[in-house]
Amino acid sequence: MAGTAKVYISMVGGDKRQQELLNILDNQHGNQYEIKAYGITSSKLLKNVKFYEKLDNEFLSSDIILLPIPCKDKRGYIPLQNSDEKITVGELLEYCNPKCKVVLGKKDREIEDTARRKGLNIVDVLELEEFAVLNAIPSAEGAIQVALQHRNTVIHNTNCIVLGYGRIGKILANMLKGLGAKVFVEARKSIDLCWIEAMGYEGVHLKDLGKVIGSFDIIFNTVPALILDKKILKNVKKDSLIVDLASYPGGTDFEVAKELGINAVLALGLPGKLYPKTAAQVIWKTLKILMNTR
């Protein structure tokens, strides 16, 4: 798909991120892309996007079929805007051309089985390192925004700890340092603790977390495991704030936190909720990487 040949992209459903992505694609220079949209509304007049009222063969005859991230709602259907139609990802895949690339978020076994049977190329962006790194930026910035919304103090000179030193943890710690916070970072691996020290943060090994957790004003968790359990939470200050960014159900025992009077917030999907335009730019950058390298 790389080169000068026109690339046909069909977008199905989504939220504000997909609306913003349509705006981005509509403003692309030249005739390199032809954009089709179904189940997405737009408040702007888009000159280079063709909207469809049904999923027909013409719509699905594209190089890339882009589904929402995640691709299913709570009922198991593709989330569509201004449409009462109920369609599953599996049903849509039945009509896709084996030559196309289906890009989505949060695939499951059923989707994998259908794709394998149909010979389809499925790409889950949530499994791509490029997407994860780019998406960590608005995730980290969103975490700080959530913290500011739940406290009546600035970040500067605040004792903060970031639990976990993965993609989000690295970026979040750097942002907090830039705002003048006193930054501590928890990790288990010795190499991570060395990097934490090299970056100018205070390292905390997981085994020592219970001893120091009571000294922090804001606790940011990025670890997708129960790290803030009852034993740890008993040592947290009552006026501390916990911002949990880990995948549902988070890494905090929220019932215990509530019993102890600790303000704990499960902050999921921040890029799409707070910064849909930035989230759309991340999706577009990831798509371009896919078109050029895979």
Task: Give an account of the 3D structure.
It is a single chain. The chain has 294 residues and is of the alpha/beta class. The chain folds into two domains: 119 residues, Rossmann fold, CATH 3.40.50; 142 residues, Rossmann fold (3-Layer(aba) Sandwich), CATH 3.40.50.720. It is 37% helix and 18% strand. The strands form two sheets. It has a six-stranded parallel beta sheet, sandwiched between helices. It has a six-stranded parallel beta sheet with strand order 9-8-7-10-11-12. Strand 5, helix 4 and strand 6 form a beta-alpha-beta unit. Helix 1 packs across helix 12. It is elongated and about 60 Å long. It starts with 6 loop residues before the first strand and ends with a helix. 39% of the residues are buried.
Please summarize what this structure is:
With 294 residues, the protein is α/β, with parallel strands linked by helices.
Question: What is the element layout, followed by pairings?
Answer:
Elements: E1 7-12, H1 16-26, E2 33-38, E3 49-51, H2 57-60, E4 64-66, H3 89-93, E5 101-104, H4 109-118, E6 121-124, H5 129-150, E7 159-163, H6 167-178, E8 182-187, H7 190-198, E9 202-205, H8 209-212, E10 218-221, H9 230-233, E11 241-244, H10 254-259, E12 263-266, H11 270-274, H12 276-293
Parallel strand pairs: 1-2, 1-4, 2-3, 4-5, 5-6, 7-8, 7-10, 8-9, 10-11, 11-12
Helix pairs in contact: 1-12, 5-6, 5-12
